[in-house]
Write a structure and sequence with these properties.
single chain, alpha/beta, four-stranded parallel beta sheet, two-stranded antiparallel ribbon, 8 strands, 47% helix, binds S-adenosylmethionine, methyltransferase, O-methyltransferase, family 2, SAM-dependent_MTases_sf, COMT-like
Length: 205
């Protein structure tokens, strides 16, 4: 509880009992703490479950080997698992699903901040391509708000497999290293950094 209080997920308000001056101990969730609840509107739970999965934890133990010994792998993940993350996720449906859910969870918070703070940016655009757009959480919201804008979610084929676009939203599977279909605007987001900025904007932490 001390660690959770120190990191701002739980608070310990001072409560006085009515009869005496005795102080009762109690804990409440802070706004940040509520993001960890399963049923919270913008739950970060899938993101944490993803980050703490053994497959994604293992690379941290390979950092030493990756930095030293002239390791030519592109990442510590490849050192641990023999291939880069995206190639691994292509053949491991559990990891593909876990990762996509994690991204979709944090994307709701990102979308909320984008439409409250940056809505003006999208006004008047005829088309938009969300490169590396995952399962399209953010783009679906934008497509709804701007029905006149043609929206495309572009991601790896195994990520968008089986997803059906509707109205002004479509999905394209492909590798951005080969070909990116450019629109008026291209969104290319690094979720974690964006997420931290949004938490800061939204919750002030
Ligand atoms: C950090 S996630 C972003 C998720 C997404 N922005 C969202 O809101 O859910 C990065 C995304 O880039 C995709 N990606 C990685 N390499 C790619 C490539 N070469 N071509 C297309 N997409 C790629 C991944 O599949 C993943 O969905």
């Amino acid at each position: 509880m001390c660690i959770l209080i120190h990191s701002g997920f739980v608070a310990e308000p001072k409560q006085h009992t009515s009869q005496s001056d005795e102080v009762e101990k109690g804990y409440v969730l802070t706004l940040a703490g509520r993001l960890l609840l399963k049923d919270s509107e913008m739950s970060s739970r899938p993101f944490l479950l993803g980050a703490l999965d053994p497959v994604l934890m293992k690379p941290w133990q390979s950092f030493g080997a990756w930095f030293q010994n002239g390791d030519a792998n592109p990442s510590a993940f490849a050192t641990s698992h023999g291939k880069p993350f995206w190639d691994y996720a292509e053949y491991e449906p559990r990891i593909n699903h876990l990762f996509n859910e994690a991204m979709a969870g944090v994307s709701l918070l990102i979308a909320k901040v984008m439409i409250t703070k940056c809505k003006g940016f999208f006004k008047g655009l005829k088309s938009l391509v969300d490169v590396g757009g995952g399962t399209g959480t953010i783009t679906k919201i934008l497509a709804n708000i701007f029905p006149e804008m043609d929206c495309t979610v572009f991601d790896l084929p195994h990520v968008v497999a089986g997803l059906q676009g509707e109205g002004n939203l479509k999905y394209i599977g492909g590798n951005m290293l080969d070909k990116v279909p450019f629109g008026d605007a291209v969104m290319l987001k690094v979720n974690f950094a964006l997420y931290c900025c949004c938490v800061n904007q939204f919750l002030g932490i």
